[in-house]
């Protein structure tokens, strides 16, 4: 493994060297960076031309300029090499601060969308593979191809109109008629009926239970004025935490007599974790990223401890499931704090909490949780727009990979041995279905650093995509090269990680 990694790093270094040289030459020869100044009239024309010529080293041949830029990169890599700037732009400003701001905006915008698309797409793909040729399968296939086909700027415009504007108006007076609540309940019942499937009787039961439960929940939320003053509270954290404990246990261990220690470990994590959060209530409410990260580490460690003490023979499995439950409880606590900050954000934004442009509310003076909720309110629309295309991609790839794996001989052997369907799917099928996805995920995570140019333009985000297009339009090589350096390095790195993931997912693959 070590030999493979070292060899890949050496080869990747020369690939990056050649690609950056070619890119720099093409950008430098794509136009005249002095064109706008040559058209000026006035006494300052010559001085401005001299300043830009000095900033971009235009009196040096293109190849020489590339090595000057390479020297700037070396000062950022080698310790004691001098001030790290990644060169100057056409206005004589260092490129590094611009790159840092752009990366920060892009990571906030695209990473969340990619992670959500990955999780939802993989889960949906697995379900559609298990429900092949069902109504749900055909429906998801139609939605996936629709998401592929819709232009991102068109989707963004629809989201601005029907999600931001109309939803903001509704949030100002959140009321629903009984007919509207019934409509929502019917849609929810159909959704769960198609996912769970089964014979006609089972479908009717699922539809009825899901529809009634949805009607009761929506009516209760409206009656308690939840959409004006949302909250989970201790009761909500415990209820949803126990539901997560049952869900994680069902997924990884099954709800059988043997899995009782696993379920007990997860339930204990929920109860003890909630008590600890209550004891540290003021600290959690004050917030801060160190507090949030510390809470996550503490609750996950509590889950591992509960699994070790209460897990019995299934100790290792109990530790994993209880650790996931602890992480879920931490997320629930964070969501509860964010919901508690909603009224103050609603008042600070004039009753329009969902934003259509920009990345944060100017001059917002608020506590930690309100500030984070403000950031999230700006992420809702662009995240959803970006997520649609990636969601469709992951869904289709996962479905195809899962269908291929479920038809293999070892799957039939596992079924012939008497293993239940959950064990066959989760332990034998799903892991091998992830192998083709490793490449797709690697490219996707490398591509997110390139930003989403159209989405950033529609929603007014100044990220990596905007940095690249602006610099390329202005024939400004150094910002373009900073963009290329980050994206090319990320591509090479994540491809190497994908190869390592192959060996982990499939023991037959060896890296040498």
UniProtKB/TrEMBL annotation:
<dbReference type="Pfam" id="PF00528">
    <property type="entry name" value="BPD_transp_1"/>
</dbReference>
<keyword id="KW-1133">Transmembrane helix</keyword>
<feature type="domain" description="ABC transmembrane type-1">
    <location>
        <begin position="103"/>
        <end position="498"/>
    </location>
</feature>
<keyword id="KW-0472">Membrane</keyword>
<comment type="similarity">
    <text>Belongs to the binding-protein-dependent transport system permease family.</text>
</comment>
<feature type="transmembrane region" description="Helical">
    <location>
        <begin position="109"/>
        <end position="130"/>
    </location>
</feature>
<dbReference type="InterPro" id="IPR000515">
    <property type="entry name" value="MetI-like"/>
</dbReference>
<feature type="transmembrane region" description="Helical">
    <location>
        <begin position="437"/>
        <end position="462"/>
    </location>
</feature>
<feature type="transmembrane region" description="Helical">
    <location>
        <begin position="9"/>
        <end position="29"/>
    </location>
</feature>
<feature type="transmembrane region" description="Helical">
    <location>
        <begin position="142"/>
        <end position="163"/>
    </location>
</feature>
<feature type="transmembrane region" description="Helical">
    <location>
        <begin position="262"/>
        <end position="283"/>
    </location>
</feature>
<dbReference type="GO" id="GO:0005886">
    <property type="term" value="C:plasma membrane"/>
</dbReference>
<feature type="transmembrane region" description="Helical">
    <location>
        <begin position="234"/>
        <end position="255"/>
    </location>
</feature>
<feature type="transmembrane region" description="Helical">
    <location>
        <begin position="317"/>
        <end position="335"/>
    </location>
</feature>
<keyword id="KW-1003">Cell membrane</keyword>
<keyword id="KW-0813">Transport</keyword>
<feature type="transmembrane region" description="Helical">
    <location>
        <begin position="289"/>
        <end position="310"/>
    </location>
</feature>
<feature type="transmembrane region" description="Helical">
    <location>
        <begin position="375"/>
        <end position="394"/>
    </location>
</feature>
<feature type="transmembrane region" description="Helical">
    <location>
        <begin position="482"/>
        <end position="505"/>
    </location>
</feature>
<protein>
    <submittedName>
        <fullName>ABC transporter permease</fullName>
    </submittedName>
</protein>
<keyword id="KW-0812">Transmembrane</keyword>
<feature type="transmembrane region" description="Helical">
    <location>
        <begin position="175"/>
        <end position="197"/>
    </location>
</feature>
<dbReference type="GO" id="GO:0055085">
    <property type="term" value="P:transmembrane transport"/>
</dbReference>
<feature type="transmembrane region" description="Helical">
    <location>
        <begin position="204"/>
        <end position="222"/>
    </location>
</feature>
<dbReference type="InterPro" id="IPR035906">
    <property type="entry name" value="MetI-like_sf"/>
</dbReference>
């Amino acid at each position: 493994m070590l030999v493979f990694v070292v060899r890949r790093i050496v080869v990747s270094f020369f690939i990056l060297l050649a690609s950056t040289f070619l890119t720099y030459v093409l950008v430098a020869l794509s136009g005249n960076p002095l064109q706008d100044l040559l058209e000026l009239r006035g006494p300052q024309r010559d001085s401005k031309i001299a300043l830009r010529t000095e900033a971009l080293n235009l009196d040096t041949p293109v190849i020489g300029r590339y090595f000057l830029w390479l020297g700037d990169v070396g000062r950022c890599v080698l310790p004691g090499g001098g001030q790290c700037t990644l060169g100057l732009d056409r206005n004589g400003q260092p490129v590094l601060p611009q790159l840092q701001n752009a990366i920060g905006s892009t990571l906030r915008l695209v990473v969340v969308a990619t992670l959500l698309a990955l999780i939802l797409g993989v889960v949906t793909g697995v379900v559609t593979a298990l429900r092949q040729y069902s109504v749900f399968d055909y429906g998801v296939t139609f939605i996936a191809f629709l998401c592929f086909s819709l232009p991102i700027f068109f989707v963004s415009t629809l989201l601005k109109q029907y999600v931001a504007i109309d939803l903001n108006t509704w949030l100002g007076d959140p009321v629903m008629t009984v007919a509207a609540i019934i409509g929502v309940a019917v849609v929810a019942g159909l959704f769960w009926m198609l996912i769970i499937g089964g014979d006609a009787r089972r479908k009717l039961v699922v539809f009825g239970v899901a529809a009634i439960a949805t009607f009761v929940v929506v009516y209760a939320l409206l009656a308690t004025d939840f959409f004006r003053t949302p909250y989970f509270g201790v009761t909500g954290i415990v209820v949803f935490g126990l539901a997560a404990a049952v869900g994680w246990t069902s997924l990884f261990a099954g709800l059988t007599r043997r899995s009782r220690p696993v379920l007990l470990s997860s339930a204990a994590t929920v109860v003890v974790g909630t008590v600890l959060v209550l004891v540290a209530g003021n600290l959690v409410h004050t917030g801060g990223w160190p507090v949030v990260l510390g809470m996550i580490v503490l609750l996950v460690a509590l889950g591992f401890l509960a699994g070790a003490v209460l897990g019995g023979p299934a100790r290792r499995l109990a530790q994993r499931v209880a650790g996931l439950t602890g992480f879920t409880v931490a997320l629930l606590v964070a969501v509860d704090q964010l919901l508690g900050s909603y009224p103050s954000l609603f008042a600070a934004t004039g009753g329009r909490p969902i934003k259509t442009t920009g990345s944060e509310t100017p001059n917002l003076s608020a506590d930690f949780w309100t500030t984070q909720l403000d950031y999230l309110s700006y992420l809702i629309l662009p995240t959803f727009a970006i997520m649609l295309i990636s969601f469709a991609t992951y869904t289709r790839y996962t479905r195809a990979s899962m269908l291929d794996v479920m038809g293999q001989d070892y799957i039939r052997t596992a079924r012939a041995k008497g293993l239940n369907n959950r064990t066959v799917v989760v332990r034998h099928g799903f892991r091998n279905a992830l192998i083709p996805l490793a490449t797709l995920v690697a490219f996707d995570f490398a591509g997110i650093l390139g930003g989403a140019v159209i989405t950033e333009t529609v929603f007014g985000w100044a990220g990596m995509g905007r940095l690249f297009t602006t610099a390329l339009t202005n024939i400004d090589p150094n910002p373009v090269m900073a963009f290329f350096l980050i994206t090319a390095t990320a591509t090479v790195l994540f491809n190497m990680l994908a190869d390592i993931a192959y060996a982990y997912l499939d023991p037959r693959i060896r890296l040498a």
